[in-house]
Amino acid sequence: MRADAHSLGVTPYSPHATAFLDWRLKSPLRGPLVVLANLAVVVALSHFPALRPNLWIALPTLAIALGTWDTLRNLHVRWDMRQAGLVLCVYMDMMALFIALFCLVYPYFNLSAGSL
Q1: What separation in angstroms does the CA of 48 have from each of 4, 9, 13, 43, 67?
Q2: What is the pTM of this model?
Q3: CA distance 29 to 25
Q4: DSSP-assigned letters across all residues of 67-111
Q5: Are 108 and 53 in contact (CB under 8 A)?
């Protein structure tokens, strides 16, 4: 009789492989990766050096806010080096959020020299 994967106790979809994608579990790496990926999308959508109005930037901006929330979820009361790294990630997330908001809002203001 030949043994298959289920009889050996091995499942084809390991829970460890998909734990990174499960939003119910805390992951200190998932939040910053979501933020950086969506910041790249914001830069691509806004044509960065010459900012152009584009309301689609609002979607990655919301995803950046969710990634920041996911990073904040990992903070705890006790101070250690992991906590220090998470605080640095939160600062990076906030900078990315403000860059995305700037790329979203700034093109709608006409700030030429003659309009002041």
Answers
A1: 54, 51, 41, 5, 22
A2: 0.77
A3: 12
A4: HHHHHHTT--SS--HHHHHHHHHHHHHHHHHHHHHHHHHGGGS--
A5: yes
**Residue 57 and residue 68: Cα distance in Å, rounded?**
17
Contact 64, 38 (CB under 8 A): yes
Token pair of 91 as six digits: 């600062």
Q: pLDDT digits over 7-29, tens only?
A: 555 555 556 666 666 667 778 88
Tell me how far apart the alpha carbons of residues 34 and 94 are, in angstroms, rounded to a whole number.
13
Q: How many residues does the chain have?
A: 116
Domain layout of the chain by residue ranges: 26-115
Q: Six-digit token pair at 90?
A: 């939160």
Q: What value, to the nearest 5°, has the Cα angle with vertex 75 and ends 38 and 79?
A: 135
Determine contact, residues 105/54, Cβ cutoff 8 Å: no
